[in-house]
From TrEMBL:
Identification of the protein by name: Small ribosomal subunit protein bS1
Keyword flag RNA-binding: yes
Record region (Disordered): 1-49
Pfam families per UniProt: S1
Gene3D superfamilies assigned to the protein according to its UniProt record, in alphabetical order: Nucleic acid-binding proteins
The keyword Repeat is annotated on this UniProt entry: yes
GO molecular function, one term: mRNA binding
Entry keywords, A to Z: Repeat, Ribonucleoprotein, Ribosomal protein, RNA-binding
Domain S1 motif: 88-151, 169-235, 256-324, 341-411, 428-498, 515-581
Entry superkingdom: Bacteria
Amino acid sequence: MSEENKKVEEEVANTPETTQEAAAETAAETKTETVEEAPAKEVAPEVVEESTEFDWDEFEYGIASKGKAQREELTKLYEESLTSIDEHTITEGKVINMTDREAIVDIGYKSEGVISLNEFRYNPDLKVGDQVEVLVDKTEDKEGQLVLSHRKARSIKAWDRVNEAHDNEEVVKGYIKCRTKGGMIVDVFGIEAFLPGSQIDVKPIRDYDAYVDKNMEFKIVKINHEFKNVVVSHKALIEADLEEQKREIIGKLEKGQVLEGVVKNITSYGVFIDLGGVDGLIHITDLSWSRINHPSEVVELDQTLNVVILDFDEDKTRIQLGLKQLEAHPWDNLDSELKEGDKVKGKVVVLADYGAFVEIIPGVEGLIHVSEMSWSTHLRSAQDFMKVGDEVEAVILTLDREERKMSLGIKQLSTDPWTDITTKYPVGSKHEGAVRNFTNFGVFVELEEGIDGLIHISDLSWTKKIKHPSEFTSVGAKLEVVVLDIDVENRRLSLGHKQVEDNPFETYATLLEEGSVIEGKVLRKVDKGAEIVFENLGVEAFVPSRHMVKEDGSEVAADERIDFKIIEFNPDARRVVASHTELHKQVKADKQKADRVQAKKAVKVINSNVERSTLGDLDALSKLKEQMEDDEKNG
């Protein structure tokens, strides 16, 4: 407020006269009036006319003693001391007072403006005496109050300031308003700018909400004038300081050096450590001497720990760190008396198809290969014998302390079944086993754990023609077998299934001789004929296509039961060939033979009675003779 304004207000405040005092003086004068003065009351109409020019300022404030001219002069001086300002213009004001919710701003106008502190959230350090930009929204509202806006003033000048700050690479202050997809929304100069999540800090941010409603310093990194987009970064301010630290740290890196770092990020394959501006990686295998499934079992985010530098590239941009190397190797704690052949106990920590890793002491593991889990030669998975967490006992098969490798076995805890194989399974003995798997040439049958034998495809059946073992049996099926041969040195056992029964080709040799007629069932038709079985004998035979024709010209059908004639029998090759066509051909031939015999008898009768023959009889006899000759030629 100017000095002239203060003088005017003092003049008005120091005026002591009141309306009541003036009324009291008038009443006293009225009581002392004489009768002669009564006509003076007739002047009242003139007083009433003058009341239209009644000076309310004099009546209300009692400043009549100053005179009207003086009062007009004081008013003029007061009005000249005030700033003349138009609405919707931007000007600077001074904060003259602050409450919990508002700031009182003087712009030199006849009244001050009131602005909500919400418009100053970006500047928590606002104090009385600060100069701020404001927009004159209204010089007077309905209550005569000056209406100002700091937010609108900032918004109008924001783009100029943003461009200037970007061009000059200035550091600006901003207020983080809220979260959004991929980052945060920041109020910078009244403009909503985007702060990507990756630009908040040099380390990964796990709690974005912790930054909301905070004021931070930023650097404007990108402006899109077409879409009015602004991108800011806080990370860029930090990186400038970290770059110098990074160069200093990298320059001093040496293999074997121990540094302090902070866990920055945890992945399935390792842990990233912040060494003070430089990141290094601890691979999962370098976290602990013991086997772990995930790095989070050993470390946690933001944990401070010591690490050792194992290696780095020439540019020192990729640094390999180790944690377990700061501790003594567990193999150094292994009992020095342990040797091959000793029994040890441990816990299964890892299972794979090829075997199981057993931890003997923390950090010392031995491998039990699946082939060392059972005496059986049948291929199986380690999961068939044990599971993770099982406590097992094993025998040390190999022990290399320099290479820190150990192989174990559990089948060695039981007797090798092949040691008494010839006694338990002599040649010619009969047994029952389970089908384990097939090959193109035979079937593997397990007689007991560790004892497997092979049945060759030719030893599955005496009579059936088997192209693949799966046609004859299935995995898991029980089969009776006979031990045919034993190779102890190579652990091979030859078995046979058909030998359980007698050879039908030897038993039924007389019934299968050529010319024999037997009822058979057609099993299936093939390209060149059909396969049949003589069910009573259990023997299969082959019927060529030309031998499948019936008497009426049709062919023998599948599943049909009908008589067949054996036309070939080879017991050594187990080959039987049969024919149905030969049966009705034979019947026809026999009939023709019988007819010829009958005709010959008739000729004899005719010759004996020739004297009684007539010419007609001679003609009939001649025709009969010709027919018999034709029949002989066709037969």
